[in-house]
Design a protein that fits this description.
Layout lengths: L15 E6 L17 E2 L2 E2 H9 L5 E6 L7 H7 L3 E4 L7 H11 L4 E6 L7 H11 L9 E6 L2 E2 L3 E5 H13 L5 H11 L4 E4 L1 H7 L12 H16 L8
Parallel strand pairs: 1-4, 1-6, 4-5, 7-10
Antiparallel strand pairs: 2-3, 6-9, 7-8
Length: about 240
C-alpha cells in the first residue's frame, strides 16, 4: 500500500471503463423506488452519473441484481450502458465489482456506487492517473481514504490483478469490499494506493464527489448542494 505516491501529470488514462453499481435496494432511504431513479437538479441520479462518466470513460457498465425488476436496467440500456448482473451465485457490492471488471474491456476501471450524484470528472481522471504512476505495466488500485474511512465504491481498479483477487475473495465467502481491500493492503497485493484527503481536495475542493444518498437526510443535503451549484459561486460555503 502506497499512501502519498507521487503523481505523473498527463498520464494516458484514455482507456477507462466506468462501472456503476445499481443493484442496491434503498432500504435505508425509506422510498418506494430506487434512489438512482430520484430526481436531483431536474435529472435522474443514474443519468447524472452516466452523463458525467461519459466525459472521461470509453465505455460504461451498469451492474444490477439478478432478477432486478425496477426501471434501472431499462434506464441503463437507454443511457447506452452495458448492463450485467452480479457474479452469481453471489450478490452484493463485492460481486458487483467483480461482475463489472469481468465485463470491462480496458486495463483500468473506475467503480462507483450509482447513488453518487456529484461525481467529478476531474477527480476520476486524477485517480486514474495516480493508478499509472509507475507506468501502464504496473497499475495500482486507487482507493480514497477520508477521515480514516476507505471508499471502495468510488475507486479505480486494474482489471488484471484485481479480477482474480476478488474472485478468490468471493469463493471464500467474503462479501465486503472494504474488508477485501484491507486484506489486500495487509498482504501488499494486489497493489493499491490511498488517495488522501489532501489529494481529494485538489480536484474536488468542496468534497462533494463522495456524497452518496443512503438516507432522507442525505437526499436533502444532495438537493441543497444541487441548488448551491446552480445558483452560487464555486467558492460558496455549503455549511
Amino acid at each position: 500500500m502506497r499512501p502519498g505516491a507521487p503523481r505523473t501529470p498527463g498520464a494516458d488514462v484514455r482507456q477507462l471503463t466506468g462501472i456503476v453499481l445499481g443493484g442496491g435496494r434503498s432500504r435505508r432511504l425509506g422510498a418506494n423506488q430506487s434512489k438512482l431513479l430520484i430526481h436531483i437538479g431536474g435529472k435522474l441520479v443514474l443519468a447524472r452519473v452516466a452523463d458525467t462518466l461519459k466525459q472521461v470513460c470509453t465505455e460504461l457498465v451498469l451492474v444490477v441484481r439478478p432478477g432486478q425488476d425496477d426501471d434501472i436496467p431499462d434506464l441503463g440500456i437507454a443511457l447506452n450502458m452495458h448492463v450485467v448482473t452480479d457474479t452469481e451465485p453471489h450478490e452484493g457490492p463485492l460481486a458487483a465489482i467483480h461482475a463489472g471488471l469481468t465485463a470491462s474491456t480496458t486495463p483500468l476501471s473506475f467503480v462507483i456506487a450509482g447513488d453518487h450524484p456529484f461525481v467529478s470528472p476531474s477527480l476520476v481522471q486524477a485517480m486514474a492517473a495516480a493508478a499509472l504512476t509507475d507506468g501502464p505495466e504496473s497499475p495500482t488500485a486507487v482507493i480514497p481514504r477520508t477521515n480514516g474511512v476507505l471508499h471502495p465504491l468510488h475507486a479505480v481498479y486494474p482489471r488484471a490483478a484485481w479480477l482474480p483477487f476478488l474472485a478468490h475473495a468471493l469463493s471464500e465467502g467474503e462479501t465486503s469490499p472494504r474488508r477485501a481491500i484491507e486484506r489486500a493492503a495487509a498482504a501488499d497485493y494486489p497493489p493499491l494506493t490511498l488517495f488522501t484527503d489532501e489529494e481529494l481536495e485538489r480536484t474536488d475542493p468542496r468534497r462533494i464527489s463522495l456524497v452518496d444518498i443512503d438516507t432522507a437526510e442525505d437526499l436533502n443535503l444532495a438537493r441543497k448542494i444541487s441548488k448551491a451549484k446552480k445558483f452560487t459561486p464555486r467558492h460558496h460555503s455549503l455549511g
